[in-house]
Amino acid sequence: MQASLSGINQKGLNSRGIDMKKYRELAAVVVLVIFLVAAGAMAVVSFPSSAEAGYMPIITIPAITFPSITLPPDIILIQNRFREISTGTGAGDFSDTGSGGLDAGMNNLLAVGSLDPAEYEIRFFDGQNWFSRDVDFRPSGLEWEQSRTADLYASDDSGDSIYVSSNPTAKFPTWTKVAGKGSGLGQVDNPKGLMTNDSGTLYVVDNGNKRVQYLSDGEWYEFPEIVGADSLVDITFANFTFYVTDFMENCIWYRNIFSPWFKLEDSTYLNYPTYIDSDSEGNLYILSWVPGDVGNDRAIVKYDGSDFSLYVPPGENVGNIGTTFSFSEEISIDQYDRLFYSDNTYDRVVKEKNDINEIIALNVNGHDFQLMEDWSSASHMVGSEVDEAQIMAYPECPYATIDGIGTFPLEFGLNEFTLTCIPETGSSNEYAVNITRELSDNALLSDIQLDSVSIDGFNPTLYAYTGIEVANDKETIELSAIPQDPNASVAGTGTLSLDVGENIFVINVIAQDGVSDQQYIVGIDRAEAPASPSPSPSPSSSPSPSPSASPTPSPSPTPSPTPTPSTSPSASPTPTPSQSASPTPAPSASSEPSTTPEPSQSTEPSESPGTSPQASPEPTETDSDIPGTDWGDEADPEMTPVPGDFDGDGNIDNSNWIKEHPGIAAAAGVVAGGTLILVTQWTIKKFKKKKKTKE
Fold first, then answer.
1. What are the backbone dihedrals phi and psi of residue 170, each rounded to the nearest 5 degrees, phi first?
2. CA 144, CA 154: separation in Å to the nearest integer?
3. 11 Cβ partners below 8 Å, 6+ apart?
């Protein structure tokens, strides 16, 4: 956009830019047009053929012709390209302090000097918040090194010094002086603007000595002399050319590496130029003075290599700049080619809005995504135990905001989230983040209860609980099981009937994934019914020493000698594991025949005549409860017991035993290879042979 400032004056712009009276006139015109349209008038709205941004339309109404309303093309009006980032509170409050040096770094931090003599500070803005750090010098000029882990340089024009800090944002930053007062190499007098390049070289405009020096790899050097220079202020580099502003000469000095210094002048746009910066395309931005209604007004002008134009006009609104002269007001172009400037007239810091709407970093629950350029969606999987997602995302431009970040609950399966990057101006950009929570494979129980009472000693990884005794009058029991994962399903519970004797119940747990499962065995022994009282025995011709069902006809008071298991049969019948209610008594050791007992309901064996009840000891079990140690007389008594050996052959390959006892194997939970993983005491005792000895 190009236009002469004489055109601006012809349009009646005052020293503050756009006269607010025109806004009121424009509002009145709009109201009138709406009224006429409502009344049926046919209004015609057209635009000039050369219309550019900032022009208002030509409004034509039959019988009434309004003059075209135009504004100079350099004035960008109602475009809302700028916003104030100073907040008026805390570190963002520049009222009564005055802003000094200003620079936007590659690390997305804006540094602004605060020139309050009572407390010098450097204030930082990260795109969302301000914070400050105290310094003991006047930060009249600031310049970040061109890297993301940047040093910050500062010039102190009143103290004639240059400082550098590698930790300027630390709570207690450390500053080192790299140049002091003087006219020698590496000395300065009233230093002003600073600049760094990609290689870390620092350039200093030494105003008092009318020269430019630079610091490279710890050594100071001096630029060739600028013949005719008067009051040098700032420096920038663009298109392989150095540019230095001269306040008193109303010009910009420039040279490339091999040429001498040349002078760039423009009587309209270059009046007392001070600070300068450049963008990635080589355009220059200069803080200067331009003709106004009365004298000159402050403005920021743009130079594209051939023509000048007004970029930030004078005025009081955000997007304008005030007229108060200050050598401490500075401008900066950031890495996104957006302009920042300080305006001490209105105690504010202003920036050009950015339309960058890209997200460049994404993190879910600590997992950093490797994002491709122009990405639009990302997927992530978490375990079944993860019940929430913490989503963090970072925009390319720190001044953009992101909706959709935070902590969110996760359902099992697919969870879809949307992130929206909202730039300062322009359209937003949406991203899809898909998080899949795996289905649980947990098929364990947390508790088993009988009639709402937990089984003693329950352990989720112990799968059999047997030998639980209940009274005979207990005909049913409420069996319940609580899974660790509430999404698992449980079968085999409820109100269950109890038979007399052993009852085996299997609880089956199926995990949420439908694949993993686990079985738990519960064995409950219901007691036998109490025996009915035995009737009195029939009278016998001989007295009996006890109410035995087998009276002894011999009156001999001398008991027979107690036989040993190895010499003679027992005087008392030896009970066997048979379920017969009336075992047959063994022959007596006496030579005299016994009388046949009368029928009796008692299931107890008869005693031999003349012997005491202690004469026939109870059978003694010699087998061990350790699985695999006593499965019959054929087992080697010298063999070392092997846990898990059920056929007594000294190893845990139980294939043959499983074939002979398929029912037992199924109830105990036999797995492939013939190895029992669930064997309980009741299973072993029920079916194995028992050895018995006699005393």
1. -65, 160
2. 9
3. 70, 71, 72
| pTM for the full predicted model | 0.59
Residues with Cβ within 8 Å of 284's Cβ and at least 6 positions away in sequence, in order, are 236, 238, 243, 252, 276, 277, 278, 302, 303, 304
CA quadruple 394, 397, 401, 403: dihedral sign: negative
Annotate 343-375 with b (16+ C-beta within 10 A) or e (fewer).
bbbbbbbbbbbbebbbbeebebeeeeeeeeeee
Sheet holding 348-352, edge to edge: 82-84, 348-352, 339-343, 331-333
CATH classification code of 445-526: 2.60.40
- How many angstroms separate the Cα of 483 from the Cα of each of 445, 449, 486? 4, 12, 6
Q: Are 309 and 290 in contact (CB under 8 A)?
A: no
Q: What pLDDT score was predicted for residue 80?
A: 79
Please name the residue that has the structure tokens 């050009």.
352
Phi, psi (rounded to 5 degrees) for 91: -70, -15
Asked whether the CA dihedral 138, 143, 148, 151 is positive or negative, the reply is negative
pLDDT in tens, 431-485: 999 999 999 999 999 999 999 999 999 999 999 999 999 999 999 999 999 999 9
Q: Which residues of 653-663 are buried (b: 16+ CB within 10 A; e: fewer)?
A: bbeebbeebee
User: Beta strand pairing status for 445-450 and 413-422?
Assistant: unpaired
- pLDDT tens digit sequence for 188-245: 999 999 999 989 999 999 999 999 999 999 999 999 999 999 999 999 999 999 999 9
Is the four-CA dihedral 455, 458, 462, 463 of positive or negative sign?
positive
Whole-number percent of the chain with pLDDT over 70:
65
C-alpha–C-alpha distance, residues 367 and 346, integer Å: 45
